[in-house]
Amino acid sequence: MKKGNDSAFFEEFLNHSDSLDFQKVFKVILSRWYWVAGSLFFFGISCFLFLKLVKPKYVASINLKYLDKQTELDEITSTKPTYLINDGSNEYLTEKYNIQSQEVVENALTKLRYPFTFYRLKDFRHIDIYPYKPLTIKILSFDELKFKTGKFSIDPALKFSYQSENYIKTFKLAKGTICSVPGLSFQVEQINITEKFDIEFVYNNPSIIARDFIKRIEIIEIEDKMPVLTVSFKHHNKPFAKDFLEKLLESYQVYDLRQKQQSSDLTLHFIDDQLKVYSDALREAAHKLEIFKQKNAVFDVSASAIGISEKTRDIEQRKNESEIQKAYIQTLEKNLGNTFEPVNYLSVGLDGTTDAVLVELLDQFNSLISRRKELLMKYSINSSVVKNLDEELGKFRRQILDNILLQKQKNAGTIRILDQNLESLQKQFKQIPALEKNFLYLQSNFEVNKNIYSLLLNKEIESSIVRAGMLPSFRIITLMEVEKIFPKPVQIITLSLFLGFLTGISSIFLTRYFNKKFVDTDLRNASGHVHLLGLIHHFKHKPGKESKFDLNTFLSDQSIFTESVSTLRTRLSFSKSNEKLHQEKGKQILVTSQQSGEGKTFVSVNLALSLTKIGKKVIIIGCDLRRSKLHYFFEDPNEKGLSNYLQKKTDLQDLIKSSSIANLDYIPAGPTPFDPAELLQKDLFQDLLVHCRKEYDYVFLDSAPVGLVSDNVPLLRESHIVLFILRWLYSDKDASQLPEKLALDYEIDKIEVIVNDFYPDNLYNSVTSSQSYTHQYGYDYQGKTYFNQQGKSKITNLKKRLGLHD
Fold it and tell me: Which residues belong to any copy of the Tyrosine-protein kinase G-rich domain (predicted)?
């Protein structure tokens, strides 16, 4: 059962729902087109000023591909350094920290050779005029600790000055001028100023500028696990953005090669040290052999002596190689230390017999070091992630040291065995005759030193070739692009137009939404007891305390106001009323409203005037004994009136007064009494009403606002017609509900509503497609205005059509 009731409710709701009428919406917007135009104009001016004054931003970008091939000899040599970026590794992502390092950025600024930034003062902003240099300047000295950031200025008269926080100094601008300020000294080598305008320039402190530029450098990965990075740099000057990015890549390339060549440099340095040792030994051995040959004749040695000599030479060569390997292992152990830096182990041994386990441990150790550096970019040194990695590095360091110890023991054992073999051969050698023995000894010593020296030379050449053939880790794969990212004129203009339209239209509908005054002439919530009698259009000249009107001129023209009053007169004449309410012929009409100022007296006077034009005899009684305004229309002093009569201070003949209009009489309210509500309930007042209904066709009771006081409540049921006045855009929004409440509370059959001071304004029209009951008066008599003023201007007509009313 409940489900059926719900279904019926929704069907009824849908049947009464109103759909949006876009034609009406357009009319609402068109009624305030000048709001939209003004909003567009405001945002247009704002857009122009913004594009004119805002500092632009440019971004220079380029793509780098990181390579597996590190040298031109990768295909020849089998060595592969630990810093090599392998397939499937994300180690290339750590290179962005090298690009953004302080050292690389400062070197790029040095390569740019732009120690000062020059600005031109124009349109209330500083414009960076790079690459134009008004002055060619040579830096003589700079002390960062003493230098205070300030600005140098050159005015159109070429007046040269410097100003910092607490320091001002002027200079003579001429070629060769030496300018000295605290912490900075430079010389003007050349003056390139061609145009006379204000110039300012500041010194680019490398360390401070580098820190600022690091924030403007952005490095992103184009695609996950693809070794291609986009390097970009943002700056407000387009040429500077391009030039700086070029110098940044040059500086990074130098830094990258220098880091790679460190391993080869260590190897070459070690080989050079060994070459010096064996060069001296070879020179001494050759000298001794030469002296021996000079003193003794050359002779043949026996085959056994030759065999012993060759074995001795081989063993001594192996022993020397072991000694070299021992020295290199000691160097490796020293380099390992306790720091968290990669260990370079390129060309660990000269014989290629280095333990593969040690190489594998070193490779893993360096990988963990790289991982630690990457983590330190995100976490602190005391974080659990870094501490766990440090513990793992400690384990690897201990394993490497243990392996190095094993290598040293292995090397020492090899040398010990070689020494034993040499001792055995030397015993055999002692059995050879002394002269032959000495010759063989010298010859063997010379050959050993010669072979070792040749081996060292070959290694030096090989390492030098590898060093010279090293390539950068990256290769530029795209051309540099410089794009303006802010402001983008098309987007800014589009946004300004959008905001202009949005603000203008929003102001229209927000005005409708926040309007708290009465605008609903449809009276949609009214029941069968309340009816809209009609509208009285806007009247330009309203009566007041200082205003005086000639009633003879009222309603004498053919204006839309006059026509609206005439229409109300017709509807009022044919309005149904309870004829049995009173025996007298005259109709008693009560005029009231919610509050003062809604035009009760104004409507009463105009309706009365309109009725007199069709021969009706009318009287208006000022029943508002508190704040009546009826006497203003008739220029009456209001010294005697209804309040005097009800207090029996005057008689009926003196009470009723005639106006300048035939058939129109009135009774002013008189001075404000102490008890107005009680006076209106006296029988004397009822007798007055009976008399008026007998003598007049229409009796208008201009009463007090029923929404404020209850003086006229007893008269509601005693009147043939109750007119409730609502003033357009003046009465409260909920005032239209009061007539319905009065009708229900006091059992009044019908209350007629009149909307006063109405003027057509599409701003407050309904935007739905529902049928509405409205009164539109299409009379537009050209050349006719209030008070018979001829010749309405075209501008006034245009204002009326656009809804611009006074």
Answer: 435-510
